Amino acid sequence: MENIQNLGGGRGKKVVVIGGGVAGSLIAKSLQFHSDVTLIDPKEYFEIPWASLRGMVEPKFAERSVILHKDYFTNGRLVVSKVINITNSDVETADGQLVAYDYLVISTGHNYQVPKRRNDRLKAYQEEYEKIRAASSILIVGGGPTGVELAGEIAADFSDKKVTLVHQGSRLLEFIGPKASTKALDWLKSKRVDVKLEQSIDLNNIDEGSTTYVTSSRQTVIADCLFVCTGKPVASSWLKETVLGNNLDHKGRLKVDIHMRVKGNKNIFAIGDITDIKENKQGYVAQKHALVAAKNLRLLLNGGGDTKLATYEPQPIKVVVSLGRRDAVAQFTFTTTMGLLPGLIKSKDLFVGKTRKQLGLDPRNVHY
């Protein structure tokens, strides 16, 4: 069938991974030679999420950050479809397939509408780039890490553009300390980005093709191009009608124990942003979830008992927000810093080479 690629699956217990994002891709790669792994994802590729904004201003950059699942997942079964139901023994996909499991891993993250095929995703980056290049003024709604980094990328690469960032909070990057927020604000202002705090825009009442926007403070913003960088909902609404419906908290996140298993289940794990662990939802944290869950699954697949399972501890805040190509603002447990040093940590390559290497791929070259 078109949506199934047989990649020489292993023998033994059946492990099904739902979601091929940061956490799902890593655990599928980690387990593919230890069990019969099936990875189910609505798209044929894994995309490094923290590199996506660079791809909007430099489409060629996305060629390394948009990775076909089959490139790193070489010894399992890939099903390119959405999952619509889970029972105690099977996973049902939107195209009518039933995939049996002995162990299940849910890593669906947040809802993002992206193309199914890699080539179409790369075309979308090119279209975003053309839109930015053609615009004389750009409006960004949302002052979290996505909005701040996008403003930084555009300001660094297109200094002739008038960039306005509107954020309803009293400061940028509210999930980290005020010192880091102030440093990010000062940097954006130094690049002539017009930052409007404690204001919002009613996105539900915008006429298609409009270039005039009015904030909640009645300020008018003229912009040829609009980017909405507000938070996306957790991709868990479909779970409500499954056997895991009672395992969701009030935010729609799966309740997990210290071993990354869904509470009350011995053979179902959840990793990444969909979990209810109280910590910042970040890519490197999702990868740590995947490594702990992979270790525990290898133990269980080899007949090990619960007493030897590895435990996961919530991670302290460690944030690096890229500001263009050279600078960044970073907050670690005991310090906040900004400039070239944190920029060297993240901004130059956005950890793309490191992530590709973790998946067993050449960090720099892409051959298609």
From TrEMBL:
<protein>
    <submittedName>
        <fullName>Oxidoreductase</fullName>
    </submittedName>
</protein>
<dbReference type="GO" id="GO:0004174">
    <property type="term" value="F:electron-transferring-flavoprotein dehydrogenase activity"/>
</dbReference>
<dbReference type="Pfam" id="PF07992">
    <property type="entry name" value="Pyr_redox_2"/>
</dbReference>
<dbReference type="GO" id="GO:0005737">
    <property type="term" value="C:cytoplasm"/>
</dbReference>
<comment type="function">
    <text>Putative FAD-dependent oxidoreductase.</text>
</comment>
<dbReference type="InterPro" id="IPR036188">
    <property type="entry name" value="FAD/NAD-bd_sf"/>
</dbReference>
<dbReference type="InterPro" id="IPR023753">
    <property type="entry name" value="FAD/NAD-binding_dom"/>
</dbReference>
<dbReference type="GO" id="GO:0050660">
    <property type="term" value="F:flavin adenine dinucleotide binding"/>
</dbReference>
<feature type="domain" description="FAD/NAD(P)-binding">
    <location>
        <begin position="13"/>
        <end position="289"/>
    </location>
</feature>
